[in-house]
Write a structure and sequence with these properties.
The structure is a single chain. By secondary structure, the chain is of the alpha+beta class. It is built from eleven helices and 24 strands. It starts with 15 loop residues before the first helix and ends in a 10-residue tail after the last strand.
């Protein structure tokens, strides 16, 4: 059995092909020149890993039928099971160190997340509508915030034909902001902000607040969580502990309704998903199943022989700040970028409480994987391989398709500028409050808004980075769940 490379944190891959096509495809890394003899050695190594650990190893072609002298990227694709519809996620890279850094959540970034939408009826000009700004990032320091609209980069209007080159050009960019006048979005040339990239680690606990409505006997906790990351290299559990502090505050204030905003969350570590679910679930404890894993037949036999029949059942944690006793339901805000570990939390809570989803259908990934590198360090090639799929305590796992999970309430998030997090008139939070029975406030100042047509529906990060959808198995060591 193989040893899985331990990784400290999840990251995201910037793939230009993803942006150009507006959907996830296979990864095509930049390859270095290697002779065919070296290719053969790499490809033999690739086949060995896939034949051992890959969930669909039985569907691979026999090794003798393959040309081992071709580029490993092309060789790897011949092993993938139904790339378009099933395994949309396994990848190969010729720079495992760079990929590991991205998994570790460390990157040189501006710190912006945005959607690209048309700003005119001719569908020519674009605006970058900021969904959020990373805490402590250069963008936040420069004064950018959720709701801002970037119309120009270095003085040039964003269009459907130039946005790639403009966003990808420099480490320092000058953004011209836009404004909504009536129903028209125009550039305001008096508002420019220059931002220079810096290397930072993103804190996923982006925003939390408590909305108190004593007249309706409701105290609503609201949390925006952007990726499942336990901590940093320097402090392995710092972000998980920050989550625990948020729920300690929710618990102390008597929160009896919870709105969990995962619309910008593409996934991450299963361990952090377990932490979050254990803080929410009604009756969640170390004696109750959160999720189950299904590996290929060889690994199922191995784990069960080593740890027993229940080795692939994973229970909740005993979290002292769990608020489940006060909840009968949880509201989850979703988008088509809500994926992997986010979907694991939604699915894992369903056997224990009502989960009401609001927004768009989720991405549809019930698979988990791990990162592999060559233990002998003969080359810098590496793999991210799908090892299996997850199910909840009721053995439900029916969302692993391109249609994902259909929301309880379909709500398009196309009203701009985006309202601040926690604002009771913000589009998706407003719907949750309506269902809870909280009317919209009547004493707030009305600002100009308009509807936009998406150019690329999914949230992007920095210069056209599409967050990759990951559900990461840290190590092959399993707990024994009796």
């Amino acid at each position: 059995m193989l040893n899985f490379k331990r990784i400290s944190q999840i990251g995201f891959i910037a793939i230009a092909a993803f942006v150009a096509s507006c959907k996830d495809k296979d990864v095509t890394p930049t390859t270095t020149t290697t002779d065919t003899t070296s290719y053969s050695a790499v490809n033999n190594w690739v086949y060995g890993i896939m034949n051992d650990a890959y969930f669909w190893y039985k569907s691979m072609p026999v090794e003798s039928s393959l040309d081992a002298t071709i580029n490993p990227t092309n060789y790897f694709e011949k092993l993938i099971y139904n790339r378009t519809t099933v395994d949309r996620f396994s990848t190969i890279t010729d720079d495992i160190d760079a990929l590991t850094d991205e998994f570790n959540g460390v990157g040189k970034i501006f710190g912006i997340s945005y959607t690209l939408s048309y700003t005119d009826d001719t569908k020519t000009n674009l605006g970058a509508f900021l969904s959020y700004v990373v805490k402590g990032s250069p963008a936040e320091t420069a004064g950018l915030k959720r709701g801002d609209i970037i119309m120009k980069i270095n003085g040039t209007q964003l269009t459907a034909t130039n946005y790639v080159s403009l966003f990808s050009s420099n480490d320092t960019e000058t953004f011209t902001l836009g404004k909504v006048v009536g129903t028209t979005i125009t550039a305001d040339d008096t508002k420019t902000i220059s931002v220079t990239k810096a290397t930072i680690s993103e804190d996923p606990v982006l925003f939390s607040t408590v909305i108190s409505k004593p007249a309706y006997n409701k105290t609503i906790g609201y949390l925006v969580y952007t990726q499942f990351v336990p901590g940093t290299t320097a402090s392995a559990s710092v972000y998980d502990n920050e989550l625990r502090q948020v729920f300690a505050n929710f618990k102390s204030k008597g929160v009896n309704e919870l709105v969990l905003d995962l619309r910008f969350n593409p996934g991450g570590y299963i361990s952090s998903a377990e932490t979050l679910a254990s803080l929410i679930g009604t009756g969640a404890s170390s004696s109750r199943i959160f999720y189950k894993e299904q590996w290929n037949d060889k690994y199922i036999a191995y784990w069960q022989s080593k740890y027993g029949a229940n080795a692939l059942n994973y229970n909740f944690l005993d979290e002292g700040n769990n608020i489940g006793a006060n909840l009968s339901r949880v509201f989850v805000l979703t988008s088509n970028g809500t994926a992997s570990a986010s979907e694991l939390v939604i699915n894992g809570l369903k056997p224990y409480m009502s989960v009401i989803t609001i927004g768009e259908h989720t991405y549809g990934k019930n698979l988990f994987g791990s990162l592999f590198s060559d233990d002998q360090k003969r080359w810098n090639w590496g793999l991210y391989v799908m090892l299996g799929q997850t199910a909840n305590a009721n053995d439900q796992s029916d969302y692993g398709t391109v249609n994902g999970m259909t929301p309880t309430y379909i709500v398009e998030d196309t009203t701009v500028p985006y309202q601040p997090f926690g604002n009771e008139n913000e589009t998706l939070l407003r719907k949750a409050l309506d269902v809870i029975g909280i009317p919209a406030p009547t004493n707030t100042r009305i600002t100009a808004t308009t509807q936009v047509k998406s150019f690329i529906s999914e949230n992007l990060r920095d210069n056209l980075i599409v967050p990759d959808k990951r559900m990461i198995k840290n190590t092959p060591t399993l707990r024994t769940n009796k």
